[in-house]
Amino acid sequence: MEHRYLGNSGLKISEITYGNWLTHGSQVENDTASKCVHAALDAGISTFDTADVYANTVAEQVLGDALKGQRRESLEIFTKVYFPTGPKGHNDTGLSRKHMMESIDGSLRRLGTDYVDLYQAHRYDYETPLEETMQAFADIVRAGKALYIGVSEWNADQLRAAHHLAKDLGIQLVSNQPQYNMLWRVIEERVVPTSKELGISQIVWSPIAQGALTGKYKPGQPVPAGSRATDEDGGGAESIRSRYLHDDKLTAVANLEPIAAELGITMAQLAIAWVLANDNVATALVGASRPEQIASNAEAAGVTLDTGVLSRIDDVLGDLPETDPNKTQSPATRLT
To answer: How far is the C-alpha of 4 from the C-alpha of 15, rounded, in Å?
Structure first.
């Protein structure tokens, strides 16, 4: 497993991060989830990402239980705050000082740790002054409950404003966590250049386009039974179908298979290696419902795609990837 620095900091994280968004506490049994975490550790993954909203806080508990007995100093544990949790009351969401201060304590308790390495704003909160949010982050860092701060799905202007406040407060904003893959490239025009300027890395989620880049979805054919595109209960099925499962895109994905075969890697490994080829990407988030999935995907670490391969991929995909920077956005109002 290779490691990279996270933003302009001295923190190293594994090129592959294990994330438990759609699995722990919901889609897989706790025993299987624990086996997946241990498979990640066996593969050399040291970085683990979760959020309080995943399975309404249960995912954090499952991850914390699975990591019990591990040397804490050898791990990098990330979590997030913003979305509604608990009974979803009027203050159980957003980036207010009240919600953030209560949420970090709950997350630490469920994860079974005194601190998280990275505490992330899961979305931008248009209803709370950014100054209030950043001051809460600063107090959380100074209390030793988080070492670094990050955000998720913030646009370039929001990153710049937050970075300025963080610098004034003496804390480090080191990361952004956007969706990014061969077919979804909305961060490339504005977010990535701004992040490079500010010393912010990308922690990318959905590097395999929620399974669309694995080749398992075929043009003109029904989606496979039991796949994420059939999971209407929290699996993001509608998003997958509307964003990726179009015959022109699936045909192009099928045309990538010879490239993966020539390199001797799987389609999933090709997709993960592609996002890691972007030097502003610190790590690719991968999940798993079976231990063997994480072991296979972790092998993408260290795979180098030369400029010739990257050009061939671009030629195959043509103008199919989404590149509109305006599609990097947070909800206009808080979800309840």
So the answer is: 6
Measured in whole angstroms, the distance separating CA 242 from the mean position of its chain's CA atoms is: 20
Q: How many distinct helices (H) and strands (E) make up the chain?
A: 12, 10
Which domains does the chain possess? 3-327 (3.20.20.100)
Task: Find out whether 115 and 172 touch, Cβ atoms under 8 Å.
Answer: no
Query: What is the crossing angle of helices 156-169 and 130-142, to 10°?
Result: 50
- CA 108 from chain center: how many Å? 19
End-to-end alpha-carbon separation of the chain, Å? Answer: 40
Q: Answer whether 0.90 is exceeded by the pTM.
A: yes
Res 33: pLDDT: 86
Q: Strand pairing partners for 184?
A: 181, 322
Catalytic residue among 5, 18, 54, 244: 54
Render pLDDT for 259-272 as a digit per residue (tens, 0 to 9): 999 999 999 999 99
Residue 79, strand partner residues:
119
Query: What distance in Å separates the CA atoms of residue 335 and residue 83, rounded to the nearest whole number?
Result: 7
The residue count for the chain = 336
Q: Of 249, 246, 223, give the one whose Cα is nearest residue 235.
A: 223
The mean per-residue pLDDT over the stretch 158-174 comes to 97
DSSP string for residues in 227-258? SGGG-TTTS-HHHHHHHT--HHHHHHHHTTHH
Q: How far apart are CA 276 and CA 282, in angstroms?
A: 7
Structure tokens at 9: 């900091």
- Cβ–Cβ under 8 Å, residues 4 and 34: no
Query: Is 54 annotated as catalytic?
Result: yes
DSSP state at residue 187: T
Measured distance CA(156)–CA(189) in Å, rounded: 10
Whose CA is closest to 133, among 151, 111, 108? 151
Tokens of 55: 């399975």
DSSP state of 179: B
